[in-house]
Structures are given as structure tokens and as C-alpha cells.
Amino acid sequence: MDQIILTPFTEEKLRNVIKEELGNILGSYLSQPVRESGKQVLNFEEVRERYGFSKSHLYNLTSKRLIPHSRRGKYLTFSVDQVENWLLENQIPTQEQIDKKADEYLSKKEVLYAK
Predict the structure, then answer these.
(1) Which is it for strands 75-79 and 41-43: parallel, antiparallel or unpaired?
(2) 71-96 CB burial, b ≥16 within 10 A, e <16
(3) Which positions fall inside the Helix-turn-helix domain (predicted)?
(4) What distance in Å separates the CA atoms of residue 13 and residue 16, rounded to the nearest whole number?
(5) 82 CB contacts (<8 Å, ≥6 apart)?
(6) pTM of the entire structure?
(7) E strand or H helix at 77, and its extent?
(8) Helix (H) or strand (E) holding 79
(9) What does each of the 115 residues of the chain score in pLDDT, given as a tens digit?
């Protein structure tokens, strides 16, 4: 049988504990990717609406085979996961990432010249 231990909390301390727990719960919930629907495969119009592409731009991407897609007869289909991965492929590095990479590069050069 579990024992219940009561400790005196001030109203302020109780509010802080509740805020912290709600923050933990919301933080883990909000960090999960949100999908508008459970669909894994989208058609041409759904991709346009979801990602904000113009019709001509999306046709251009598919005709040049720049965006991952499949063709079913005359219809184009897109995997949600593949399109989202494609969108994230060419991320611009932050200044912090650039500085870190430069430091790593320079430290390797220093080791080479020290020999």
C-alpha cells in the first residue's frame, strides 16, 4: 500500500510546482512534430497548400526531379516524410555552427603544423 506524505506548501510554491510540471508536459508535447492529418501520401494540390508552393514552382520542381515524388498514371504523389526531409536538406548553418566548424578546422591545422 502506497503512503501519502503531505508537506506544507505555500501558495506560491504550489503555483511554481504546477507551472514547472505543466511546462514539462507542454514542452514534450510541443516538441513532437505536428501533422495536419494522418495522411502519409499527399497529392499535388495538398502539397501546394501544405507547403505554400505555387503551381508552376511545384511543376518545375517535379519536372526537374528536384523534389521527391511518385507518378501514378497522370497523378503525382508525394510522401510527407520525404518532402519534409527534402525541405530540411539544405539548412543554412547558424553563426555558432560556422564558428564551431572553423575552430575545429583551425585546431586540426595547428596539429599538422606542430609536427
Answers:
(1) antiparallel
(2) eeeeebebebeebeebeeeeeeeeee
(3) 42-90
(4) 5
(5) 68
(6) 0.52
(7) strand 75-79
(8) strand 75-79
(9) 567 666 777 888 878 777 888 777 777 655 555 555 578 999 999 999 999 999 999 999 999 999 999 998 889 999 999 999 999 988 888 999 999 998 888 888 766 665 5
